[in-house]
Write a structure and sequence with these properties.
The complex is a heterodimer.
Chain A (H helix, E strand, L loop, with lengths): L21 H8 L11 H11 L9 H17 L6 H17 L12 H28 L27 E2 L2 H13 L6 H4 L3 E3 H15 L1 E3 L10 H16 L3 E5 L6 E5 L14 E3 L15
Parallel strand pairs in A: 1-4
Antiparallel strand pairs in A: 2-6, 3-5, 4-5
Chain B lengths: L18 H15 L5 H8 L4 H15 L6 E6 L2 E6 L4 H7 L9 H13 L2 E2 H8 L4 H9 L3 E6 L7 E5 L1 H6 L20 H6 L4 H6 L6 H9 L19 H4 L7
Antiparallel strand pairs in B: 1-2, 3-5, 4-5
Classes of the chains: A alpha+beta, B mainly alpha.
């Protein structure tokens, strides 16, 4: 799982297109930018729980399920590698949700399974959370070749870091959250116009660089045109990711839960090379993703 | 590092002379070594003064380095003693090296934490906790020598067992695994269900990991000895604290 797989050899679990016309259509629709997801479904759930300051042991399943599915839709729309585990979790959440909707007396033994699933989920979240805390505590320690240095001949300082996405300095979930906020203000496009809409990552890269070359640093949301359509927003987002991958910009979040900013990292924006960007066409802009799953 | 079986204090320290001289020699040896050197090895090198005296000299040296105006510290890591730069000067030392320091990604850190606390542990157990495939992350950690395969679990499929290495201890500045901060307990009262269900899936596999092969167990205890130690006996590390952080510990 290299950090920056590009290419079109899509893995399982990401099918934006209804099948038919496949290879060609898919090649056109698929952007070059691909982001692999190292975080799992539990990570996403903990993110949602923390964000809404919920108690793990008392999760409002219906609301959390909605949110979870909305993220999943967005990930699908962005062509992120969605691991099968995300889909299993989605099914689990839906099952728990459907069973908690039943009145207690109407439940059979089988339906008590919902309660078991829920208890199991809570246990897993609590368990995962302690290891996340332990990991955070480890990261605080004085790390060799980061905070302290030794003349150890056996060490290659290069070996210290194990970085998944070296160009992404922000939690994936918070980045997606920011994107959702922008998408929430997307301009509605009349249906007949959609099929003709055409936006290229290349144009958007240019656009983002232009905006940044003046300011040097902008809030994430300022990088999107006010009257942008959903497609324009998505493609602009991909352009930002691509620029980050090329190390032309850096996506940063200075404080936990703070605003996300994009910073120009190169002296001369016109020197940024981004020849190989494909077009991202409109045809799947609607798809299954537009559905009324904005925030709950 | 309590050393139980060192020779009785002897009067044979003439070879290295005074305490002062001893501290100076240790300083030279540690500087030249770069890597952590175990107490056992130091005693061997000095060939005279008993371990207690060497240890006392190390303490003296460490105290001297602890002065605020010094830029070097004498630290106890990975079962030995090592000279390291002071943390507060990191910025300037870093500037010496061209590359930006590479950060450790969250997935790698979390996986490392799981292995550190639950070792020996299988990939399936790690994945059960993180809820996501661990293959790539494990490969990265193995490549960097932060974890290692320490055996196979005697269950169906005989999956590989992973444990941390001495490099891991060195990287995080830990004397040994017992120095890991305690893992937070899951609050008992928080959810009866949750506590009761604990051990059902992820924990369940841990429960019977007592059956795993002994190399891992021994490994875990000896993991405090990356330090140069040809004897390989872990610098007289007693098998302490196993109950506190073994797999039967806070985890299940």
């Amino acid at each position: 799982m290299g950090a920056e797989h590009e290419g079109l050899e899509g893995g399982p679990g990401e099918r934006n297109q209804p099948s038919g016309g496949e290879a060609l259509a898919e090649a056109q629709v698929r952007p070059r930018v691909r982001l692999e997801v190292f975080e799992g479904p539990l990570d996403l759930l903990l993110h949602l729980i923390k964000k809404h300051e919920l108690d793990i042991t008392d999760i409002p399943i219906a609301a959390i399920t909605e949110q979870y599915l909305a993220y999943l839709d967005l990930m699908r729309e962005l062509n992120l590698d969605i691991a099968g585990e995300f889909l299993v979790m989605a099914a689990t959440l839906l099952l728990i949700k459907s069973q908690t909707l039943l009145p207690e007396e109407a439940r059979t033994d089988e339906e008590d399974e919902g309660e078991d699933l829920r208890a199991d989920l809570v246990r897993r979240l609590l368990e995962y959370e302690r290891y996340r805390e332990a990991a955070a505590a480890l990261a605080e320690r004085p790390l060799l070749f980061r905070d302290v240095f030794a003349r150890d001949p056996a060490w290659d300082p290069e070996l210290v870091g194990v970085e998944e996405l070296p160009w992404l300095r922000v939690s994936l979930w918070e980045l997606l959250e920011a994107l959702r906020r922008v998408l929430a203000r997307a301009r509605e496009v009349p249906l007949q116009e959609v099929s003709r809409e055409r936006v290229s990552v290349r144009d958007r890269v240019r656009f983002v660089l232009d905006r940044l070359s003046g300011a040097g640093r902008l809030d994430f949301e300022e990088l999107f045109p006010q009257r942008a359509t959903r497609l324009e927003i998505i493609v602009t987002f991909l352009a930002i990711l691509e620029l980050a991958r090329l190390r032309a910009v850096r996506i940063v979040q200075e404080a936990p839960w703070g605003p996300i900013a994009v910073r120009l990292e190169v002296e001369d924006p016109s020197a940024v090379r981004f020849e190989e960007l494909d077009e991202y066409e409109a045809c799947d802009a609607g798809g299954s993703n537009d559905g009324g799953r904005e925030r709950t | 590092m309590g050393d139980a079986k060192e020779p009785e204090p002897a009067a044979s320290s003439e070879a290295v002379g005074s305490e002062e001289r001893l501290a100076g020699i240790l300083e030279s040896v540690l500087f030249a070594a770069g890597e952590p050197v175990s107490l056992r090895r130091l005693v061997e090198i000095l060939g005279g003064p008993p371990a207690a005296q060497v240890r006392a000299a190390l303490m003296r040296l460490a105290a001297r380095y602890a002065a605020p105006e010094r830029g070097i510290r004498l630290e106890e890591v990975a079962g030995g003693y090592q000279l390291r730069t002071a943390r507060e000067n990191a910025e300037w030392v870093r500037a010496l090296f061209r590359d930006r320091p590479r950060r450790m990604g969250r997935a790698a850190l979390e996986t490392l934490a799981i292995i550190a606390y639950r070792q020996p542990v299988t990939r399936a157990e790690i994945e059960a906790i993180r809820g996501v495939d661990a293959e790539a992350v494990l490969a990265g950690l193995l490549q960097r020598d932060l974890i290692r395969v320490c055996g196979r679990k005697e269950t169906v499929g005989r999956p590989l067992l992973y444990g941390t290495t001495e490099r891991f201890l060195e990287l995080f500045g830990l004397p040994d695994l017992n120095a890991l901060p305690a893992l937070r307990e899951i609050a008992e009262g928080a959810s009866g269900n949750a506590a009761a269900a604990e051990g059902a899936s992820a924990g369940g596999e841990t429960a019977d990991s007592a059956a795993e092969n002994s190399q891992c167990g021994g490994d875990r205890l000896a993991a405090g000895s990356r330090a140069t130690d040809p004897g390989g006996e872990g610098a007289g590390e007693p098998a302490h604290g196993d109950g506190a952080r073994g797999q039967g510990g806070p985890v299940s």
